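ESCALATION

Customer reports they have been waiting on this structure for their group meeting. Please prioritize. Original submission:
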Amino acid sequence: MQKIPPELEEEVEAPSQSASIDVSVRASFPQSEIFGVKLINGRPTQSILSIVNNEASPITVAFIGGSLWTAEPLGGPTQNLRNLSTVRYNIEIPAGQKESLSYAFTTDMQPADLRLSLAAVVGDSKGLAYTLQAYNETVTVVEPETSLLDPQIIFLYLFLLAVFGGTSYFIYRTWITTLFPQKRRGGGGDRAKTSSRGGRKVDPSAQVSVVGADGPAVTSGAKPAAAYDESWIPEHHINRPEARRYKSGSSSRTKARGKAE
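Update from on-call: job pushed to the front of the queue and completed.
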């Protein structure tokens, strides 16, 4: 892209009304609404400039640009807020012909009513340049409409949900489980402790082994009954004689020697 001369750029930003060339320029906005032109922030605004050459010789469209100004309803002084991009075309229009050129620009400003100024710089066959006003009316700068199906909005919701879930889990694991521990369900352990505490102790000496069909068991209390028939067992096997104590042989020998002497 070639560099634009400073004097021509100033003419595009603030065009003069003293053009002495028979060329008409009109700007239109295909995407405009009934209530006026709206400039949506972040989205390109498309405009069409219709240029009619009424001269007897061809002309050349050099540049198209514009600027945004404050809108004063009472006709007070205006201020240039932003200069729009200036695009070079270098398109020749023959005598008596018409040409439509597309010009797009993007805004990123606070929503407000502003005055939009668009201009085209054309040159005649003699090399003289003229700045022609194409549009100079009030427009509205607005923010884009948000939709729930917008991918950016969906990603934002998912990110916030993940942050909220992670924070909640951290608080639960750090504070809730520490301050309010969960009680174990079921009374098996407590009942076992209660039964073990409240149960009576059994004297081991009072426990008797009982042999039955289901195997050995332990009972406490009275003298156990015999689990077999004693009628066929000899009496000397049942009533065993008590063992007698005998003195050792050394002591008996000592007594015998004393009697002999």
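Sent to customer with the following note: DSSP finds five helices and eleven strands in the chain.
Escalation resolved.
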